Amino acid sequence: MTNLEQQVLTQVQAIIGNEEQVIGRRGILIPLKKSLINEADIRVVIDIISADPALAAHLLLRSNTAQTAGVISTKSRSVKDALIRLGQVNIYRYAFSFYLKERLDELSEPYKKLVQGYWALNEIIAMDCIELLREDNDIGVGAKIDADEMQTLALFSVFGQVIALTAFAYLNAELSRPVSLKVLKSLIDKQQQQLSLEAFASLGLDEDLREEFLIAHNLRQTQNPDSPGLVLRRVLSKRGLLINPL
Fold first, then answer.
1. What share of the chain is helix, strand, coil (3-state, %, to 5)?
2. Which of the residues 55, 79, 188, 233 has an alpha carbon 20 to 30 A from that of 221?
3. What whole-number distance in Å separates Cα of residue 83 and Cα of residue 107?
């Protein structure tokens, strides 16, 4: 690693550790996380989420993705239905990804276009995973995997790249002489695993998500046949996106 790459890596890591800078609008996310950790009554959670109609609509939409794909049969017809079915972990993961995407849309060019490309890839991977679950179920070899747990994991498939690119955009905005994107590309290619794990730890995401991410990228093995990480691994391998190729 060159001296410039090391300097940029250190600065990017410092920004990754600043949740407020990376996530931005946290007026809903912070109380939501506290209520979920404290296992608050569902009515409390509904009130918090309903304070942001865009988030409420997003969670309702997400909760019906698996039903639309034919993986589950029951459709959520209200925010309450959606939240009850999603469960605490998936509610927070979806909410986190919603506000992260909102923050990404505020980036300047060319970072906005680049990071939106990564996000579109996340969405495609998530759809591929849900389709793979449906195909496995149709032939009778489906694992006991919650469709939303599968989808929320898939939405973090290239988390390290997304967060590193976001941090790099903030870093360059503060520099009098911006650093070339080639330097960031080199860092992502060499440090994707480290950047991903630091992002998970710094941004307070749940331990299960991190563990399944490691399994998905073939960085950790599991004896659990119902691991969503194993399904995601198949999709990532097919697309040549594994951190540790098979």
1. 70, 0, 30
2. 188
3. 30
